[in-house]
Design goal:
Elements (H helix, E strand, L loop, with lengths): L13 H18 L1 E5 H19 L3 H4 L7 H17 L3 H14 L8 E8 L6 E7 L13 H40 L7
Antiparallel strand pairs: 1-3, 2-3
Length: 193
């Protein structure tokens, strides 16, 4: 039994798995969106979130020019890059991580990626997903935490209301007739004992 054993096998050797996930994370950092199976995306997400956290933890050090960093800060950057290179072997992907992606997520405490289900793959019906980095957050103008979620809910309720209005205009008479017919169809005859 594999109790407390993290990760998935995916019917591959350990070297093949390491290369697969390294390539998937590098592709995610380069294109910021990849299409893969759910199982591969689930494991890739775990590794990508970890490497983004290594870059994000440097915080204000990343915003400084390399020549303006103290020796301690330079050592922290080198260490974080080496930790990221353990997972992502593509140097250009790691440089993009520390130059673009890490500073983008300075204000976010985890949850850097999302998985969107896109249906089964034609051929073997494997569940496919889009694994993508979260988009940049627009400045909220000081509304506070959770205002984006409230805006999304308000937009969703407006769409629902608009959809109901359209449905009412298109077949209002047909709906009232079907509603009137349904109670009669559901009414059960009384059985006398």
């Amino acid at each position: 039994m594999r109790h407390h054993r993290a990760g998935v096998h995916l019917s591959r050797t350990s070297a093949h798995r390491a290369a697969l996930f390294s390539n998937l994370v590098a592709a995610l950092f380069h294109s910021e969106r990849i299409r893969t199976t759910w199982a591969k995306a689930h494991e890739t997400r775990r590794l990508a979130e970890r490497t983004i956290t290594w870059a994000r933890r440097l915080g204000d050090v990343l915003t400084k020019a390399p020549e303006r960093r103290s020796p301690q800060e330079a050592a922290r950057v080198v260490h974080a890059i080496r930790m990221a290179r353990r997972v992502v072997r593509d140097r250009s992907a790691v440089m993009k991580l520390f130059n673009d992606i890490g500073p983008r997520f300075l204000g976010r405490q985890g949850g850097y990626t999302r998985m969107l289900k896109i249906g089964p793959r034609p051929g073997d019906a494997a569940p496919m997903v889009l694994l993508e980095l979260m988009p940049d957050e627009a400045p909220s103008g000081g509304k506070g935490k959770g205002s984006a979620m409230a805006d999304d809910k308000a937009a969703a309720t407006e769409k629902q209301a608009a959809g109901k209005k359209r449905a009412g205009k298109q077949g209002g008479a047909a709906k009232t007739e079907s509603k009137a017919a349904k109670p009669d169809a559901k009414a059960k005859p009384k059985v006398k004992k």
